Amino acid sequence: LLATGSLSAIDPDRIVLKKAILTGIPIRVRRKVAVVKHMFHQTLDVRWFKPAELVTKHGLRGVVKEPVGTHGLFKALFSGPITQNDTVLLVLYKRVFPKLPDPDSAGGDVR
Question: Which terminus of the chain has fewer Cβ atoms in its 10 Å neighbourhood, N or C?
């Protein structure tokens, strides 16, 4: 027995989301613009997440402006002056489908 609990309601329209946070470090800072590293690995990744909003640990909001080089660095523009010791975050949500028991197996194995 792994766990016990009760089921309050079965709703087929309920969506289960998983939260993932990508973090990066500003390496060059100039007022509201910073070059961020350690968030992506390739220029293609930077272009894919360009419409997403960035957030810092100190509460600033920002956007990805353009990739810098070929190793995943990018330029970001923030709502206020950013400091070198701040951390840049990209919050992502992914839909997760629940694992249902297989009706053919009698043991209740999860597929």
Answer: N
Q: What is the CA radius of gyration of the chain?
A: 20
- Alpha helices (runs of H) in the chain, residue ranges in sequence order: 43-48
Give the closest residue to 88 by CA, choosing from 49, 69, 51, 61.
Answer: 61
Matching residue, tokens 């309601």: 9
CA pair distance 102, 41, nearest whole angstrom: 38
The total of other beta-carbon atoms located within 10 Å of residue 81's CB is 13
Q: What is the pLDDT of residues 56-81, one digit of tens each?
A: 999 999 999 999 998 989 999 999 99
The residue written with tokens 């027995």 in the block is 1
